Amino acid sequence: MATNRFETGAAIFALREAGPGGPRATLLLLHGLGDSGRAFAEAFGDARLAGLRLLAPDMPGHGDSAGLAPAGIGLDDYVAALRRLLDARAAGAVILAGHSLGGAVATLLAAADPRVRGLVNVEGNLTEADLFLSGRAVAADAGGRFPAWFARLRRESSWRRSMAQHVSNRRYYESLVRCAPAAFLRAARELAARTQPDAGTGPGEFAARYLALAIPRLFCLGGTCPAGTRALLAARGEAVRVFPDAGHGVMVDAPAAFYGVLREFVDSVLAVGEGRP
Questions:
Q1: pLDDT at 239
Q2: Which of 63, 112, 168, 173 is 20 to 30 Å apart from 36, CA to CA?
Q3: Over the Cα atoms of the chain, what is R_g?
Q4: CATH number at residue 175
Q5: Interval 206-251: pLDDT, tens
């Protein structure tokens, strides 16, 4: 795995990448709010993914990309920058796997870019119940308390208590301390606004866009996924894989099982594209 810088104009990514020349597919891995591409570290050592080109950027303001992008860019800017990344680095079919915020960004990217052939959404934002840290950040900002709230969130002691029960939360802390506060808050505001139900009745933007995608999709969730999100997926007959012993960061808490499922999904998408049953 190599770590490079990729400049797109509106943003500069710190980028983890690996894979052979001329692969059948490119797998773009998108992390969550406050996180970084380190969330997908196990992908780069999993032999089942060896034939794919793997791209795991630190999105603007996050991880090693903190400080590299201009202030004030939003999620649609992320999508535009990621499309330029695909222009430069993708080969073969493009398949997305996005976690949390990354699931929302992946949904926007899939809707905008015809190269995307499939999407694995790992607990991306579909309902208000998914607004865990993002909702708390917005509430703290509304009360003029965001700087203090974010500083407290980034203290290691916060992750040594109940939230530290899952490996994913402990690893998340290691990326969170490097995230730019302004980038965290800007993304949290967008997540909250674009996840709200439409006119208080129908699904919010991210859920509506996800449900409307005309490509294969799979929603992966851990044992702590909110009941409201599970209910929406069940009501719409969506394809779901449950990892009951995992927390929010499924790919970190259950990497062997998750990357096995991801490989199966990639193979099924490629088989359809190649006309195989």
A1: 97
A2: 112
A3: 17
A4: 3.40.50.1820
A5: 999 999 999 999 999 999 999 999 999 999 999 999 999 999 999 9
